Amino acid sequence: MYLYTYDGTFEGLLTVVFEAYERKAWPTSIVKEELAQPFMFGETITVVADEDKANRVWKGLQKKLSVGALQALYHTYLWEQANLEQIIFDYIKLAFDTSESIEGNYAALCVLQVQQAAKQVHREKHRMEAFVRFEKTADELFYATISPDFNVLPLIIRHFEKRYADQRWAIYDTKRGFGAYYDLTSVLLVNFEHAPSRYRVLPQGVLATDEDKYKQLWQVYFDNVNIPERKNPKLHLRHIPKRYWKYLSEKQPRMLL
């Protein structure tokens, strides 16, 4: 029985795969170092992330899997649910050990689990792209905080980089304690010394003087395009679940013009 511990990065997890094949010692469990408990009935193997080893595993997977399947594996890593490491390992091992494509083999539990996890993460990605609302600060930075169910910030950066290429912006994930900052040239991953703990935390004095007016105009527009006779609360909740309302200006208390 073998317990593998790693640093929590995707590169570290791919290094675990390399080490397991190198040793021919298949993991009973894979956990992040900070979560590891003493392993009484087996060996604990601590793996240090290694870029070369991780790249060798990834290049091997590129020969076995489609681009969509590789993306699904990464999305499963961002899924952050219990046992994701073992699911990813089992999927990779099945891919390496099978001569035929495994991508449609949903009889294999790991293949089904990767497909389901990737679908959930992909859905959350699109919702964040749709529901993120920026606030303009006095120094003309457009700022937003998010707390998605899954770690989708790495997946939505490209969308906002293309859509707001002419504006400085920052998106901070309050649940995971890191953010992305775009400086008109490139995107940097950042951490705040005093990280915000919830949505809409910017003090009033930090916001641009016209920010409230834009929010008011948006709320007026939303009220006017809304047709009361066509209200369908069930359909509305299906498309915009309540947990996303905290991001939307139109769902905040009405502001007086």
Can you walk through the features of this model?
It comes from Pontibacter arcticus. InterPro entries: DNA_repair_put, DUF4130. Residues 85-250 form the DUF4130 domain. This is DNA metabolism protein. The protein is α/β, with parallel strands linked by helices. It folds into three domains: 2-124, no CATH class; 133-208, no CATH class; 210-257, no CATH class. 43% of the residues lie in helices and 13% in strands. The strands form two sheets. A five-stranded mixed β-sheet has the order 4-5-6-7-8, with helices on one face. The protein has a three-stranded parallel β-sheet with strand order 2-1-3, with helices on one face. α6 links the parallel β5 and β6.
Biggest sheet details: 5 strands, mixed
**Spatial arrangement of strands, main beta sheet:** 4-5-6-7-8
User: What is the beta-strand fraction?
Assistant: 5-15%
Using only C-alpha atoms, the radius of gyration works out to: 22 Å
General shape: globular
Q: How many domains make up the coordinates?
A: 3
Report the order of strands and helices. Answer: EHEEHHHHEEHEEEHH
> Class by helix and strand content?
alpha/beta
**Low-confidence spans:** none
Q: Helical content, roughly?
A: 40-55%
Number of strands: 8
Distance between the termini: 67 Å
Q: How many H/I helices?
A: 8
Mean pLDDT: 87
